[in-house]
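Protein fold
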Amino acid sequence: MTSTTRPATPGSEPDATDPPRRGEATSAPRGALRRPSAMTRNLDVSGLVDAEGGLLDRAVFTDDQLYRQELRRVFAPSWLFLAHTDQFHKPGDFFTTYMGEDPVIVTMDKNRKLRVYLNSCRHRGARVCRADMGATRNFTCTYHGWAYDLEGKLVSVPNQEGYPADFSPGQWGLVEVPHVDSYRGLVFGTWNPEPVSLRESLGDMAWYMDAMLDHDDEGTVVVGGVHKWVLAGNWKLAAEQFATDWYHVNMSHASALMVMSPSGKKPKDEIVHRTGRQYVDPNGHGAGFPVHPKNRFDARTVHDWADYPAMRERLGEARVEGPLTNGHATVFPNFSYLPVNGSVRIWHPKGPDKMEVWAWTIVDKSMPEEVREAQRLYNLRTFGPSGIFEQDDGENWSEVQSIAHGFITNGVALNYQMGMGSEREDGRHPGQTSELYSDAAGRSFYARWRDLMNTPAWHEADQK
């Protein structure tokens, strides 16, 4: 599914006599408006990320100007996760979320096409939909009553006779995200009017994602709704950990591992000292996973139900022994998942020092109800808002962030050198992989961030 409406660009003013242009229905003229260049001044971040040497400047987590630049150059051009297709079954179904800090509405139009709109009225800017999810026939702003249909068109303007004769509702529809696409039930969108395709952006990462998303022909569904919570910490701390960091497990989650072990016993040595691989993607994605022929789903009910021979036949031995179950992954910039418990989540940025976590539990559609429920409960107990692993992670990120603004502290480089030079083609997993205990995917994550931060985005081409 792909939408092709382009958002308004600075200085664009269509002539009323010209034929309709791509996206004109949802793009209004800016007229004489010109934004001063000082408001969008960009910093060269080359000196903040030494991916080759494995060093990182803490300013990437704390500087407000860098954060604003991220919204322009990292989030606006990238493919961002929005929702799961199972959240939309009939025209009018909608889900409200964010792309960076931009609020958007994901909805199914009358032709059953998924479309995404900026959740902001074109009159005074209030949200036109304040519900988290639901079904509707139109989106009406509760400030002055401007109303929009499921195709984003402005269909009702109270007191329209009070506007100038040349006022054209067709030029004041909702701003639409120009490209929306899905991969195995996961819906993504980008503001970039001419992006690489979603599939090309995923690259070899799709092979690792399929280990979670493609167990059989029926695909996946959402159970239990969407859980949301706020954490102190920069969004990149969470995204990089899910891309690269198995290293923290034995220390940070020691108490959780004890709780999950048989009463009175410490975790088995083969649990504590796992071996595996870490996928390192040039587009900033990353995935780590233990490799063992006896890898299994942790929830007993899910394990008993899983048809491992059928999945070996479908996915191959390498995926079943690796990324099918235990592991962690991030799709750059801010979408992460955990296959063993069906957790997918987005790290919404809320300033340099705060993120909002939105998490779904997804399961195989073919799972019986009792198996779905077992997976949902296991996810809640481990990586839900009060999960025994999740709370450890949130504590770590808030600890890192809480001291990072200190003058001396902020100037001390961080070490990302574990696994330097270990990246290679291992002959079993696609792309470059490193050791399980490695910072390789983290270095790649920040290299991608650096490159985007130093590359003008499409919307800068029209700035004078």
